[in-house]
Amino acid sequence: MTTMPERRAALPLLSHARGKRSAVTCELKCGNACADDAPNTSENEYFRDLASRAFTRRRMLGGVGGGALAVALSPASPAAAHRRPGHGHGPARGLSFQPIAPVAADVDALTVPRGWTWRPVIRWGDPLSTRAPEFDPEHQSERAQMQQFGYNCDYLDIIETPGTHGRRALAVVNHEYTNENIMFPPSEDADTLEEYKRIAMAAHGLSVVELRRSGPGRPWSYVRGSRYNRRIHLKTRFAVDGPAAGHPLLRTREDHLGRTILGTQNNCSGGTTPWGTVLSGEENFNQYFVADDTPENRRYGIPSTEGGRAWWTVEPRFDARRPGYENEVNRFGWVVEVDPEDPDSTPVKHTAMGRFKHESANIRLARDGRAVAYSGDDERFDYLYKFVSTRRMVRGSSRWAKAQNKRLLSSGDLYVARFSGDSPPAEIDGTGALPSDGRFDGTGEWVPLVEDGCSRVPGMSVAEVLVFTRLAADRVGATKMDRPEDVQPNPVTGRVYAALTNNTNRGVAGYPGVDEANPRVTNREGHVLELTEYHNDAGATRFAWTLLLVCGDPSSAGTYFGGYEGPVSPISCPDNVAFDSTGALWIATDGQPGTLGLDDALHRVTLTGRERGKVEQFLAVPREAETCGPVVHDRDGSGSVFVAVQHPGEDGSWADQHSFFPDYAAPGTLSRGRWGGPRPSVVQVYRR
Ligand code: FEO
Ligand code: CA
Ligand code: CA
């Protein structure tokens, strides 16, 4: 590690923190979104109190679990058939482990259950091609980074290749953002600082990496030089498809046709489709631009004053005030689709799925075979969406079938969620205390924005609805939620789970008050919503909902664990979700250091039976890191859990690193290893 004195950091060091998070996370990940006013200032009447209709609803609903509809759930729905949760070849079995105790927030270790161990599968800077240079943080270059694993991994899937007896897989990983302060040696040289920006751009995007292992139950290693290895970054060419492709709102001086976009960025979470591609959400893209102060740009939180990474000094398109570049901001905020099995394929931006700060997109099939994608807009007081494809998925694994299915997300209906509570509003007092019926629950509807190829939003064309989806949803009275993160259907039951991570402005003067779906004032700890589509059909336009968890320290008032009264692990700021082969819910957290004084975690939550709501902590990530991308493989061997460890030690600096993950001198010693700084990594946790 260098001993050079601290001179000028690649970005200003930050000392203030507002809300739950590290100030560095606020600045670099979200562009200080929480320090500004929430951009949704619309006055839509967004939450309909249907207490008077409670009797009607009660006839429709029944059973335990709140969201249970009178119609029996159907695990044999088409969605259940296409992709086996838990992967592998054996029966559904789940994982047995002794929950770990919560870990204090200053501990720089990956903590796993007794009898389990872990190892990194791939780390920031690991070379993907044979020609790529070895990781050398003191002499990094754009050229090197474009051939190496990117930074701050988020969404993750490990897709086993059929017919390889569990010996081959492809890992697909998002790289959401960069922590310049700990990535680069300080410098005062203008050329060096410009090169840092180019390296950071190359460290954004996605990676596809081939994995091999000797057999089921054994640890995976990545294959350097595989022809499947691929970096997708801000210089990768994307095709635009869907109704807004080619529209003037997407044209710039570098793309007169509005059909080709260079790059993807701020890829947060995602989802793997039944046809084997991966969807990735472009989330906090706004903070990378400077643009004119228009109502549309304001609604998307795009700054009109210079700051942040100032990438426009190396790529003019990030200054959308310049003539001809005004629409550059409209070219990000989409769901992108990547085919990991075809390294030569052109990835696609799907305009039919709308433009907002997509956390992720996860698919379930409707009863009639249409593809339904759920997606959340991660902003305080923003919305939950679903897209329903026009065409049906083609069965089979032929190339022809896959080619057909890769067009499914090009055309369809786009909806936004409106929730109604069944308890009197006076009983939702903002403390988290349950209303007299014992549940935060109710019904809801999917309100169309685009349907049958037509705009359902008065005064907006289809293209305008898709490019300015937030403004369209404002006009139809969508429900303002507490920051929707991952939204994912359970492959076993079909129920949909949404992580509402937190919203410290809820109920604060000048902001919307509580409602039954967002029932806590200054909601610092977040909650988890369970949604059951009518007839358990993902294509339905009505649903029932209930809050599964109201997060926090279980000994605190105003928390709720599905009605379970036994011991549970504390949980706060739910973010990414996943399921194992039994349908149990796994929740990764982002923010526990600020709310609970604990390292962020991965928890398993039981969803059925008498232990519904039981939360058990499986692991804790190192100091100042966030848990991302959980993947649970429990069908073969003794099982593995994979996580993407994002922004370890991010409050440090080049000269004062706070984490040495994952290359500790020896596991568990908490001491620096070969390089004296952290490397965001994908980790496999498996039995010792
Ligand atoms: Fe990138 Fe919404 O977390
Ligand atoms: Ca209720
Ligand atoms: Ca996230």
TrEMBL record:
<dbReference type="InterPro" id="IPR006311">
    <property type="entry name" value="TAT_signal"/>
</dbReference>
<dbReference type="InterPro" id="IPR008557">
    <property type="entry name" value="PhoX"/>
</dbReference>
<protein>
    <submittedName>
        <fullName>PhoX family protein</fullName>
    </submittedName>
</protein>
<dbReference type="Pfam" id="PF05787">
    <property type="entry name" value="PhoX"/>
</dbReference>
